Amino acid sequence: MIRALSITKSIHDWLYSTMSDNMAYFVEMVLIALVYLTIFAVAGLFLVLIERRVAAWFQLRIGPNRVGFQGLLQTMADALKLLSKELTGTEKADKFLYNLAPYFVIITALMALAVIPFTQDFHAFDINIGLLFLIAISSIGVIGILLGGWSSNNKFALIGAMRSGVQTISYELSIGLSLLTMVLITGTLQVSEIVEVQKNGWLIVQGHIPAIIAFMIYMIAGTAETNRAPFDMAEAESELGAGFHTEYSGMKFAYFFLAEFINMFIIAAIATTVFFGAWLSPFGITESIPILGVFWFLAKAMILVFLMMWFRWTFPRLRVDQLLTLEWKYLLPINLMNIVIMALIVWQNLIIQF
Amino acid sequence: MERVIFYTLALIMIVFAIASVTSRKMLRSVIYLLFVLCGIAGIYFLIDYNFLAAIQLTVYAGGIIVLIIFSVLLVHHIEMELEIAKTSKQILTAVTCLIGLGVFLTTIFSHDFNVVENSMTTTTTEIGTKLLSYGEGGFILPFEVISVLLLAAMIGAIIIAKGKKLTDKKTI
Question: Are A278 and A198 in contact (CB under 8 A)?
Answer without folding.
Answer: yes
